[in-house]
Amino acid sequence: MTDPLAPLLSLPGVADAANAAKDAVFQVHRHRVNLRGWATTAAEASVRAARASAALEGGPTEIPESGEVSDPVLAGSLRIAEALGGLVATWQRAPLQALARLHVLAAADLTTDVGRPRVSEDVSQRLDMLGSLVTGGTSVPAPIVVAVVHGELLGLAPFDVANGVVARAAARMTSISTGLDPKGLGVPEVACLRRSAEYEAASVAFASGSLEGLAQWILFVCSALEAGAREAKSIADAALTG
Predict the structure, then answer these.
(1) What would the pLDDT profile of 188-200 be if each residue is shown by its tens digit?
(2) What superkingdom does the record give (predicted)?
(3) Does the reported pTM lie above 0.85?
């Protein structure tokens, strides 16, 4: 059976960028703190990811001192952060079910129409194709799979609201489920927020379907994964000194 993502490996710079991303994430898992105390650093990474993802969707980044979050976008992103680990197994065997659950969590305070993609043959077909990739339909390096999941969900926008939060959460689940970042230590979402204009432009380029656009997006995602690993190292370093 032909691997549908295999041609992406021949795009300029993609193979090297994927390897660099893998190496960066691997190294942060070898950090002294993360060998034993990774649960604490992973929890901090998860919250930072949720805040950055919400900000990219127009929500605030700060959590009130009271802990009571009233903003619906940030609240949804934090709900996903809390539930994500428990959804990874579902993502591996029934990805469309996991996507529906992500949308329920993300959009519960935004709309009553939660968990159901738009009724469209194109949406249905593309989600089915994405599901087949997640469940073993490709053997390309994990950073490329992460990039395709992220970019496809952003471009397709299968739900009426909260598509960005769902796309970034699905990318995070893919990082975990593929073994790229099994403990969820990286925070590439922060890099996406800091480079939001570049992030948006690369997403549009991916959606165009051109070879140049595909390469642009994958290279961006790989660089965000590397930056996310640096963010993870800073979390671990702080835990070591704190």
Answers:
(1) 999 999 999 999 9
(2) Bacteria
(3) yes
